[in-house]
Amino acid sequence: KADKAGLQMAIHAIGDRAIDQVLDCLREAKVSGALRHRIEHFEIAHEEHIKAVKSLGIVISAQPNFVSQWQMPGGMYERRLGRERWRIMNPFGKMFRENIRLAFGSDCMPLDPIYGLYGAINHPIEDNKLSAREALLAYTFGSAYAAHQEDLRGSIGVGKIANLIILSAKDLSELEKETLKVKICGMVLDGKITTMILD
Question: For the packed helices 47-56 and 16-28, what is the interaxial angle rounded to 10 degrees?
Fold first, then answer.
């Protein structure tokens, strides 16, 4: 009913059975990709889930800080879920290569997006790592796209809302290699510099 009424849905799904149920419902409803329905979290995702998400035009709203916190080798995911499930948690790289829209956020713990960037860039499964550029794209343009606001925000352009942060990293290479050392040293809100920390 939500799809037919033109309402965008955001559905939480953690675990392969939950993802199965959500995808079955979306297929049965013959949802419109134009509405950019989202699956929140999308953890423990098999290859067939990734293919289904792509064919349905679903946006994946993911939290790479979960990787930093729980998915590093020997972490909670591996200990509690086993190695097989641990390997298919948060398949960012696979989804990015399939041109699935990723929208990154923090959910609840820790909120620092730098910590999330670290998880995306240093994912313990090589195939699922993102470059610094790809991870930033998911945090910025990807999140704006998920909210149907890519014409207003999510990238720098004429006529767009100028809300952005300034990082201490001199380039993407430094951000990738020294992620956890990078600091937020400035903030621009509505085109005005509101915070500047000079070191």
Answer: 30
DSSP 48-73: HHHHHHHHHTPEEEE-THHIIIIIST
Contacts of 1 (CB under 8 A, 6+ apart): none
3-state secondary structure of 164: strand
Q: How far apart are CA 72 and CA 30, in angstroms?
A: 37
Per-residue pLDDT tens digits for 27-77: 999 998 999 999 999 999 999 999 999 999 999 999 999 999 999 999 999
With contact defined as beta carbons under 8 Å apart, do 123 and 158 qualify? no
Classify domain 10-151 at the CATH superfamily level. Answer: Metal-dependent hydrolases (3.20.20.140)
In this structure, which amino acid lies at residue 100?
I
